[in-house]
Amino acid sequence: MPWSNQGGGPWGSGGGSGGGRGPWGQGPQQPGGGGGGGSTPPDLEELLRRSQDKLKKVLPGGNLGGPGFMLILGVVAAIALVWASMFRVQPDEFGIVLRFGKYVRDANPGLNFQWPYPIETVLLPKVTRVNRVEIGMRQVDDLRRGGSTIRDVPEESLMLTGDENIVDVDFIVFWVIKAGGAADYVFNIQQADGTVKAVAESAMREIVGRSDSSRIQTTERQKIEGAVHDLMQKVLDGYKAGIQITQVQLQKVDPPSQVLDSLRDVQAARIDQERAQNEAKIYVNRVVPEAKGRAAQILQDAEAYREQTVAEARGQAARYLSVYEEYRKAPEVTRQRIYLETMERLLGSNQTIILDSGGAGGSGVLPILPLDQLMRPQTPQSKGQPQPKAQPQPKTGGVR
Hints:
Elements: H1 44-58, H2 67-85, E1 86-89, E2 95-99, E3 102-107, E4 110-113, E5 120-123, E6 131-135, E7 137-142, E8 147-152, H3 154-157, E9 158-160, E10 166-177, H4 182-188, H5 192-209, H6 213-217, H7 221-239, E11 243-254, H8 260-329, H9 331-347, E12 354-355, H10 371-374, E13 398-399
Antiparallel strand pairs: 1-4, 2-3, 2-5, 6-10, 7-8, 9-10, 10-11, 12-13
Helix pairs in contact: 5-7, 8-9
């Protein structure tokens, strides 16, 4: 009986791939009684008979069961088998060969062979592609401006710090498939980006929860990035995810927008405080050494003055004792010597000395000639003017 009587076609009504039960079952009935909107489907036996007639004309001898036909059929089957057994692995890929769904071997970049489907299948993950996961923000297309904009996701970015403050943390994680971990990446995780995102958010919350809010925003950004990177890698290695974290990059670490202005004022005050403390330290470091130097100098001067005074006092005492000893030996000579030394000390700085020899007439006194005044150079005003006459000196007892 022809297949045309089994439901309007070889695979059911309408010829669809999923609409009937095949040649051994009755497909769904179409409106109007038969498939194809009421039209009679072609006779399959007639089609097969026409195809055989055309093939007999092509084959030598016209015999489908002859050796020529079998040879051609074998060559076609061999080509199809070889073609189905070949696959290519690109340089940025890594091949994983499965046999009936079980991992059997790896395939390096280049041309490789496998058993035809469904015996063996190949998975080709991209091992050199750098993947990017954003936490706390999303980059969305802006249709009005023709570019992209950043949308904040507060349910991911708001975190509690160790000093019980809230900060808004946006960061990006870059990861690749670990060398030699392609099999773990394929079999141990289902959604790589989701797994990395969950691990990254958990690690960041843990590190931020142990840190101070002011340090997170200022001095410890790089330290936090390294700590989150290490913690994420440890967790993913525990999962055997076959993922290598290459970089954790903080984008924004700010307080929530509701208190941002007030916290900025607090931060500015802290900066002013640190600046004032630094200036005070600079002043102390400059003034204290100077004061210590002056104090040391004063102490040294005092020590020198003490040594000098003691030495002079001892010298005067020794001189007095020596004079006294000489006085005991020759009192008259010593008195005369002391008198002469005293007069020499008193009169040695005077330029004119007048001695009164004790006489009423004073006939032995001569007038003093002012040689010191005559030897003085004349000034321009005094040239050409008459010089005043020298006043006679009073007569005294004597002149030396």
